[in-house]
Here is the input.
Amino acid sequence: MTERIEIRLDLPDGRSTIVLVGRGVRSELADSIPQTAARVAVVTQENIDVAVDPGTPFETFYIGDGEQFKNLDTVGELCSAWSKWGLNRADCVVAVGGGMVTDVAGFAAAVYHRGIPVIHVPTTLLGQVDAAIGGKTGINIPEGKNLVGAYWQPNAVFCDTETLDTLSPAEWRCGLGEVAKYNWLGGRDLAELELEGRIAACVRIKAEVVASDEREAGRRALLNYGHTLAHAIEIVGSHDLKHGEAVGIGLVYAAELARQMGRIDAELVAEHRRIVEAYELPTQLPAELEPQDLLKAMGRDKKVLNTGLTFVLLGTDGLEIVRNVDPGLATVAMEALR
Here is the structure.
């Protein structure tokens, strides 16, 4: 069964983003290639064994595997290779892979010829429920994750659940952290759904938020619930935690911080632990991570905007952006996760 979700945005050309969720949906890729396209640049990685047929002459461009390749050098190499091949503004880019691929290819498409159409075929759970949805693209610099990027909406996203068949347990955990997050964004019945229904439910939640605030002027920032500490964990120290595992810890931390600030009670903190643990994700900080290092990394988070430590936290009115959080309370909340 295929589920179709439309993300309606106030774009100059009046188009919207179509998201298809279901087994084998990538077979419909050719129908979404712009009629103006004479060629398609498929961006993927050597280890991704997912074939696509855009129905238009195409060439495959490979990028490196790993966060160390999510940088300006990779984007520059892609754009240079596209130019040598003759890709122009009327053509199209198709990104096939996980969140790293859709982020890099999406950003390169946003800046090449000042914008070229892009379509995503996410092949991981993280990509299908979050990274490939909503048009945020980004690359890393030494100072932080995703600090360089652009908003560039894909023409379409094909969440083909067939591509998840060979996903490793570690990659599943990457996506499960994001699924857990959606429990506090309106997805309380997610655990009761089959895979396709669960992915579609997450996409619908994100689509509704993105449609109301494409460029994160307000409400879209709530999608970062649990991510402030998670991104700091990913930057600081040496550990084997995947993104979704860091988000799981970040969700419990956000709940503990909200409790320290008197915004929620211990029962809600326990609920966070229960839901995160149900997805078999960690809820404790690695012992080798120092609070001061994490505080410094969180201070560079994109949401800070010169207003001190900033978090998305639960309160009596639901999730809210809370600025100028006391570093002392933030540290106490970290120690509660030891």
